[in-house]
Amino acid sequence: MAIEASKEEAGGTRIRYGMVGGGQGAFIGAVHRIAARIDDQFELVAGALSSDPARAKASAKELGIADDRAYGSFEEMAKAEAAREDGIEAVAIVTPNHMHAPAAKAFLEAGIHVICDKPITTTVAEAEELAALVEKTGKVFVLTHNYTGYPMIRQAREMVARGDLGTIRLVQAEYPQDWLTEPAERSGSKQAEWRTDPKRSGAGGSIGDIGTHAYNLAAFVSGLELDEVLAQLTTFVEGRQLDDDVQILTKWKGGAKGMLWASQVAVGNENGLKLRVYGTKGGLEWTQADPNYLWFTPFGQPKQLLTRGGAGALPVAGRVTRVPGGHPEGYLEGFATIYAEAARAIRAARVGRAPDADVVYPTVADGVAGMKFIDASVRSSRAGNVWTKV
Amino acid sequence: MAIEASKEEAGGTRIRYGMVGGGQGAFIGAVHRIAARIDDQFELVAGALSSDPARAKASAKELGIADDRAYGSFEEMAKAEAAREDGIEAVAIVTPNHMHAPAAKAFLEAGIHVICDKPITTTVAEAEELAALVEKTGKVFVLTHNYTGYPMIRQAREMVARGDLGTIRLVQAEYPQDWLTEPAERSGSKQAEWRTDPKRSGAGGSIGDIGTHAYNLAAFVSGLELDEVLAQLTTFVEGRQLDDDVQILTKWKGGAKGMLWASQVAVGNENGLKLRVYGTKGGLEWTQADPNYLWFTPFGQPKQLLTRGGAGALPVAGRVTRVPGGHPEGYLEGFATIYAEAARAIRAARVGRAPDADVVYPTVADGVAGMKFIDASVRSSRAGNVWTKV
Amino acid sequence: MAIEASKEEAGGTRIRYGMVGGGQGAFIGAVHRIAARIDDQFELVAGALSSDPARAKASAKELGIADDRAYGSFEEMAKAEAAREDGIEAVAIVTPNHMHAPAAKAFLEAGIHVICDKPITTTVAEAEELAALVEKTGKVFVLTHNYTGYPMIRQAREMVARGDLGTIRLVQAEYPQDWLTEPAERSGSKQAEWRTDPKRSGAGGSIGDIGTHAYNLAAFVSGLELDEVLAQLTTFVEGRQLDDDVQILTKWKGGAKGMLWASQVAVGNENGLKLRVYGTKGGLEWTQADPNYLWFTPFGQPKQLLTRGGAGALPVAGRVTRVPGGHPEGYLEGFATIYAEAARAIRAARVGRAPDADVVYPTVADGVAGMKFIDASVRSSRAGNVWTKV
Amino acid sequence: MAIEASKEEAGGTRIRYGMVGGGQGAFIGAVHRIAARIDDQFELVAGALSSDPARAKASAKELGIADDRAYGSFEEMAKAEAAREDGIEAVAIVTPNHMHAPAAKAFLEAGIHVICDKPITTTVAEAEELAALVEKTGKVFVLTHNYTGYPMIRQAREMVARGDLGTIRLVQAEYPQDWLTEPAERSGSKQAEWRTDPKRSGAGGSIGDIGTHAYNLAAFVSGLELDEVLAQLTTFVEGRQLDDDVQILTKWKGGAKGMLWASQVAVGNENGLKLRVYGTKGGLEWTQADPNYLWFTPFGQPKQLLTRGGAGALPVAGRVTRVPGGHPEGYLEGFATIYAEAARAIRAARVGRAPDADVVYPTVADGVAGMKFIDASVRSSRAGNVWTKV
């Protein structure tokens, strides 16, 4: 129960937050709200939950948000909340991708911390602009690359960092799904509609939706910086506007190489995110669907199955663990850890301190890196699958 | 997101609840609190969190409970809360086993719904007394056999009920752990201390702590009633006062047979709860550590791996599912479902209705059955491992 | 390639052997023949392949056995082969169970080594008589409890023997199948017919066919001697003459306890033989369907997945391994190892020596033990499931 | 026991064969010999087992080859055996790669059928020359891409062919190993020495040794023809002369795309050959280390685990299966199936017939395709990772 919430920590009460997007019919907003509740560090008090005003109101009512804090637009919300004494300290942005940047900008400028879904924006330029604004305002900006919240991912990162794998040679990442095997965007799936629409998703389809997750995880665990990509984006489903499969060769600074595959048409895969990292001294393998396990092989020794909460779990994993080994934690707990880390950063900011050294979350810089990854991949693919600097 | 909380449901706000036990250093209390928060149906406002008054106060403060609602004893709490206009509607009892009955009694008599950890009491008589009191008061009584909250367990139960397995022949249940392989109760583990102490745990050690879970799950999924047991309780660790391993043959009404094994000294097992049910037409297998999967084999056809959120998931599983297939849910979500079901029952009670037909949770009757299972097993073992009516 | 055959070993050529049973339509005979060929230590030159003379002849012809060595009965074969200068040195007996004892007796008395399928006989008395005859004749007698030939089973036995598990507390064995879920013996399955016929199988159905395998494996790996059983034999399929499911509690000399389950009606199980052994210091788990893996957990340390041919494989496993790790060996290779060990024993006997100390195979004593296990279990079950000395 | 050998089939006795290479200290020769024995279709009677005459003699003696048929060179052997009335009908060539072509040529010209290890030659030109010679002589030429002999691979191929997957979109193949993580070729490993020596292995290291297996399997199962590759060959271990890792993007005729990864430095992988094929209607996944399982997901339906010998196994799998489901077959049985198929082809050739339609084995054409795959990959890599026609 390592991170059991203490509302007294840093001298205070729960962090008041609002939400942009995430109204009725949305998916990821509810995930954010559960994640925010799990460790009891946040309280939802305001929202601009939908671009449709009626749905925004109804959604707010359902979520117990007071009428006068159910806003019709994020601009209005940023302004009004900044003016209130009991205004929100943080906002969660869970809209389609194209709204991330304008909304984040509005809240940062209003002095409100931002927790933003990924990918951070739809262009590199927007992302860089946002990074500059974060720098300027000094606000906390957390990008919810939630898979970095899994305890065994924290463990993997630490094992690489402390040298258990030696020098990294290979970084193999993949994220196959199958839900877009058929043209779901033409049979009424709201999720499929905006994710295959370049106006709302940006230039990348599967690469923006799930490829970035695979890239982010690879970078997070390996501790390496991506140097070049050689990418092939494919649209298998006729009439679809964006890629539904992407195959990438990667070169990382320092000499490691890798492959990255993301697909939405690989029948039989639900959310098959998988990472394998191999170095001169050892190898690691992790699968998102079974996140409580981490395979580790020191070269020349037996394979070990490390478990969250088990004998081989390191303190970095233990700190973000809630229940004992063998009682599985899942997607929502990993997501909650991102919120718990955000809370620590925000509480530190309350008293003008930097967060403690062990606070780890994906930042605006990770967001910029993600956009560069997408951008370089799209350019590589358009240029005929050639090596492209990130 | 099927059970995303609506605080407006049944015309109201969150359910105010208190907690007995679960202060600093405890384990299961924090699990209950997270479970209560996940679907946002409950608000913790009162507590008698420890039998040690200082710890009780400090724990309450940490959890944001107002000073005047941090009680020194459950008796005081039941009385005071019953007298308040804004008093608690429900209480969660998360003490060692021997306190369950007196605490539950106090709150039921005060007109407060009860959510109680398992095993329900330390004797059959106490359990039956409690059952009579629940009957008399008409209050909601929920026993947190949390494994029944897993979506694929709901699915398994439904598949058996609708006949996918034909007539049940075999019910194989097991729950191996290894944390008591050595005498942890003598090296400062608070958890180990009370669980191996007959004064606080009752007559059963491993059988009460985890054997009841295995039994409850077997009964829940198979829909069968246990008839007779032939049990062998063993204490492998010298000096331990209660069993740390139990092996049971089971006979179920209607002719099914089975084996049940629970152990706390099976090295390499964390929480290895596993259930296998075989009938004339099919077989099911489920493992708690990987709860999003359910193996189903229709006789003479290929094995199927059903996944929570996947193509074969039935509505009963979908209703208690929060995130899509391939994004694992875990122990806390299963536990949260028990709380969500409790909330539905309590909201119905608010307006004088019975809960909807699809509300499912372990009841006081299940608690009585569990105590009878323990009692019969202990008697069988003491009598030299003979068949004993439950 | 550790046991690559050398026909020059012990100064000789391949061992000439004959077969009793195993003609057209049989199953296990062909398995024995492949096993005998894999390491090239044996040559099939004679046979009494069927009790049906025409089938015996035809089968012999198919297998390249010379006409004058295709016999109509095992009695004739034993006599004739003993009289030939180039007569067989060994015989493989692969008939239904009731023929094992008379055939083995005939060949032992004719001075011919015996390799016999399990269970050794249909009664304890027969088994003991056979044991006495083996003792008297000094011939090699190998019982094909083939699962003892798997490299990782050899490894498990060695790890227990050298103390990696500490003192053994628990021995959990199971062997579920599903092929007799329906009355296959009444729809033309020859295999099902004799295995459910007490005249040909003896007093045990599933217990004799697969329960003995589970028992033998448990004893082989644990190195323990079985003391008492408490058994429940069940016939689930109406009209079947023998048990199709057996559930047993076991007590082993020295204090270990265990459960043993064998079933032929557990839908979804093909040949689910599984062994788990737990001691004061560690635990082992092995599954026959995935025989190249052995799970080992030293208490308080991470779980290890030992692989045949991998870093943790001990010399006892390596000696009976043919291909590198990651290239799976299977059922036939394990069976072949029994034959390879038999060959070493027979070659030693050729020159009047005892086999080398590292030669390991199931003996007539194991056969007697197996019959006593069946007999005690049947008696326990008939007496109402009471503890019965083995 | 579907392919239990009948030496009477096609009117004859075992096929007499010889072996080139495979003497003491070699690995794959012993595998071929076991494979040849398993179904009892072959008899080893001659050999040129080593380029070292003393080792050749000693190895032959060990294997029971008559002195006068233990040759010092394959040229001598081809000539002498062709001249004998009882000369070999077939030869198995199991030398390092650079000897395949000259040896195969000698035997084909001597009228002797050839079973040859992979990769077929060291250059495309040699392979094409060999193909022309096979065409001209009409002899049987079998390339031992042994993984095509696994029953569930036969099944996968059939399922694709009959349309269970719809139109193929993605072919993902990988073959990670770790045995060359360190410079084993400089610490006395004979296997490592020749496999990293371009003079004996040709231009490809890992791509020739294991990448060809992955490619061959992908082509065999998908039924597709490879069109273009974009490859990156890497040598991670300093001083090594050939690649120890290769990452390839593939385009297949008809529009399918894929990735292929082979590595000898991926720590924790023994022989991790894995194939995944996805089409418009379904997906298949297979792993060599667990070859008795085949995962199949029809889009929108539950995942199925098909097992060799189980309910979903097709006749094409059953025909090459020896033991029942749940009794695992392994690497040697898959290899044996290649030999069993070769035997059928050779027996047909004896009587001037073409093999039956269901006989399936990798041919000289597959060998040419494999060499073109290596050649195109090497060229692509040298040209800076550009698309290259195969």
From TrEMBL, chains A, B, C, D:
InterPro entries per record: Gfo/Idh/MocA-like_OxRdtase_N (IPR000683), Gfo/Idh/MocA_oxidoreduct (IPR051317), GFO_IDH_MocA-like_dom (IPR055170), NAD(P)-bd_dom_sf (IPR036291)
One Pfam family matching this protein: GFO_IDH_MocA
Region of interest called Disordered, as start-end residue ranges on this chain: 181-205
Domain Gfo/Idh/MocA-like oxidoreductase N-terminal: 15-143
Gene3D superfamilies documented for this protein: Dihydrodipicolinate Reductase, domain 2, NAD(P)-binding Rossmann-like Domain
Ranges of residues in domain GFO/IDH/MocA-like oxidoreductase: 153-285
SUPFAM superfamilies documented for this protein: Glyceraldehyde-3-phosphate dehydrogenase-like, C-terminal domain, NAD(P)-binding Rossmann-fold domains
Signal sequence, renumbered to the chain: none
Protein name: Putative dehydrogenase
